[in-house]
Amino acid sequence: MVCISSERPGRYNFAAGPAMLPAEVLAQIREELPDWQGSALSILEQPFTGAAFKQLMAETEQQLRALLAIPPNYRVLFLQGGASAQFGLLPLNLLRAGQCADYLDSGHWARKAIAEARRHAPVNIVASGAAEAFSALPPFERWQLAPDAGYCHITSNETGNGLQVHDFPDLAVPLVADMTSDFLTRPVPVERFGLIYASAQKNLGVAGLCLVIIRDDLLRAPPRGLPAAFSYAVQAEQDSRFNTPPTFALYVAGLMLRWIARRGGLAAMATAARERSRRLYRRIDTSEFYRCPQQPADRSTINVCFQLADARLLETFLARAADDGLLNLRGHGAIGGVRASLYNAMPLAGVERLTAFMNDFERLHG
């Protein structure tokens, strides 16, 4: 393996996804791409039914289980597509006849999940942050859970709104979480969840792969009308090989899992995330030139969203930042402003460069 610094001098990618990859992971991909494990074939050409690729899948699952301390009564599925596909597949796979689904309305992506779930089942909104313009998360004490709910869905981190659930409730019904943007950035109590799902393109590699961690008792025969490839039970029975899995994305996920483990695991990732976001929020909060409307207790350590007090300067800010090697800082299209996504691969040096740029920009335009 070619081992070089995780920092690529001169530029930092703050994109919400597909996100920044560590330079050493990119170097390993480049080195192995023409000939994977001496097979004389690229990883792109490996048959998913072959012994070598089956071994790769098994090792990747074991690495994930070790990092997250996944209990033995949970299955890990490697599925095609992103988290958005699961928005509709969750009610189809998890609900029994007569059940509804509980959802926490926490921001843009929760609303997308709610809209899709409503196409397939009754939805109960347990609480909403809309009245506060999604500047805070509704506290658990305000949740109104439905007695006939088959599961309760949360979005653990809102990439567009800059909010993050920091404590997870222990519910009587299965707790389901879209963890796409903060997956593997911190330890989580997996045993409190019935199902966790996450797209890979934030902290686990490249687009095309969605991981689903599901408790055994929630694996049910697919209902009439649900294609077998979209059944969690069928995919679990077939070890995620009912159809061709996203082979390259799965290979990159394995590299990313090893990269995380080498750097101290999820506890180290959480410490780094807190420090990166702390420095950036401190820069925002000590200025009247920048402002972050999210309440400090609910702020995301992964997606820092903020505004310029003079919105007319936004395009200039983004253009000058790009010239300085600070890329993809534009906020979500539905929300606007600035968004700095601080996924695991982002070094502290990237945040230091950003805050230094913000200092200079304020001096010029403040």
TrEMBL record:
Residues 12-354 form the Aminotransferase class V domain. Keywords: Amino-acid biosynthesis, Aminotransferase, Cytoplasm, Pyridoxal phosphate, Pyridoxine biosynthesis, Serine biosynthesis, Transferase. Pfam families: Aminotran_5. Pathway: Amino-acid biosynthesis; L-serine biosynthesis; L-serine from 3-phospho-D-glycerate: step 2/3; Cofactor biosynthesis; pyridoxine 5'-phosphate biosynthesis; pyridoxine 5'-phosphate from D-erythrose 4-phosphate: step 3/5. Binds 1 pyridoxal phosphate per subunit. It is found in: Cytoplasm. GO terms for molecular function: O-phospho-L-serine:2-oxoglutarate aminotransferase activity; pyridoxal phosphate binding. The keyword Amino-acid biosynthesis applies. One of its GO terms (cellular component) is cytoplasm. It comes from the Bacteria. Homodimer. Belongs to the class-V pyridoxal-phosphate-dependent aminotransferase family. SerC subfamily. Catalyzes the reversible conversion of 3-phosphohydroxypyruvate to phosphoserine and of 3-hydroxy-2-oxo-4-phosphonooxybutanoate to phosphohydroxythreonine. This is Phosphoserine aminotransferase. It comes from Stutzerimonas stutzeri (Pseudomonas stutzeri). The gene is serC.
